[in-house]
Amino acid sequence: MSTPTPRARLDLEIRPARPDDEPAVLHLFRATLGWHDEDPNEEFFRWKHHENAFGVSPAWMALHEGALVGYRTFLRWRFLDDTGRVVRAVRAVDTATDPAYQGQGIFRTLTLRGVAELTLAGDGIVFNTPNDQSRPGYLKMGWSLARRLPVGVLPAGPRSAQRMLTSRVPADLWSQPTHAGLDAGEALADWAVAAALLEHAPSTGFRTDRTPEYLAWRTSFAPLHYRLMLASHHDPAQGGIVFRLRRRGDAVEAAVVEQLVPDRRTGIALVRRMLKETGADYAIGLRTGPSAGLLPLPGQGPLLTTRALAASPPSPGDWTLTLGDVELF
């Protein structure tokens, strides 16, 4: 049997992306990711990578004979460790390779180029929750499994629990609108409201550096229909939850992305009220802090992976994350 002829090595130009590259980048994403014209993908891209409260996303490009054939970006993030020290981080997110150039190692080349330059720039760690298809590639590039994140659920009732159990398919990206609670983007644009709620944010462990500016940005993308349900309309200091509704198979899921509550009793009452007012089949979130009475789903959470840049990742048990830290991006 003859040996297959190896593919010729491409002469690629690898460089950081610039603002004027955006039209070519969006064209590549439309061609490779199956974006639908009716979905706000371009606005979503800009919200993530240009409006982020933690800063503009660094990105790298591969060009062949002047044409864009590969793209890789990292979402900026910021954590606090258990002592309150700030740790700069990035999340490995959007990437695309022209189908005609797949199998040439472009994804790996761009990712490792980004890792090297981010390390030199002083960013501490990179983290993400890759799916089963992409996780092996990250592990080969030096990522490590940190832990399975602890997911919890609360069904609205027996029939809803049955729909939840039979809807084992990926959730829709885009949210379903609801009038329950307040428009989170509008409410949390008020610095005083955000600051009062943040008194109940996680204060121990390795956690996102939650600020009023962060909460305002995180809930501001209108097509995601984030809602805020307060324990008291007159006093946000009594706590609240941020959520959105999304379809998962035959069920409507209420994703609780922030649990800014003083105690478990308040969290349980808010989630139950949210399920009643929205008609959602069940609530889902990460079991962080009071955990809003969510019941554990052993072995069902996303797998968190990390890689050291200029700092060492925390120990697996030190991570204190909410669904808002890991969903979506």
Could you name the key traits of this structure?
329 residues, alpha+beta, Aminopeptidase, eight-stranded mixed beta sheet, seven-stranded mixed beta sheet, 10 helices, 15 strands, 28% helix, 27% strand, disordered N terminus, GNAT_dom, Acyl_CoA_acyltransferase, N-acetyltransferase domain-containing protein
Overview of the structural elements:
There is one protein chain. It contains 10 helices and 15 strands. 28% of the residues lie in helices and 27% in strands. Mean pLDDT is 92; it is low at 1-6. The protein folds into 2 domains: 13-148, Aminopeptidase, CATH 3.40.630.30; 151-301, Aminopeptidase. The strands form 2 sheets. Strands 1, 2, 3, 4, 5, 6, 9 and 15 form an 8-stranded mixed β-sheet that branches. It is globular, with a radius of gyration of 21 Å.
Please tell me the overall pLDDT. Answer: 92
Which structural class is indicated by helix and strand composition?
alpha+beta
Poorly predicted regions: 1-6
Which architecture of the largest domain per CATH?
A: 3-Layer(aba) Sandwich
DSSP strand count: 15
Principal-axes shape call: globular
CATH topology of the largest domain: Aminopeptidase
CATH class of the largest domain: Alpha Beta
Number of helices: 10
The helix content is 25-40%
Distance between the termini: 46 Å
The string of secondary-structure elements, in order, is EHHEEEHEHEEHEHHEHEEEHEEEH
Task: Provide the number of structural domains.
Answer: 2
Strand content: 25-35%
Over the alpha carbons, how many angstroms does the gyration radius reach? 21 Å
Assembly category:
single chain
Largest sheet: 8 strands, mixed
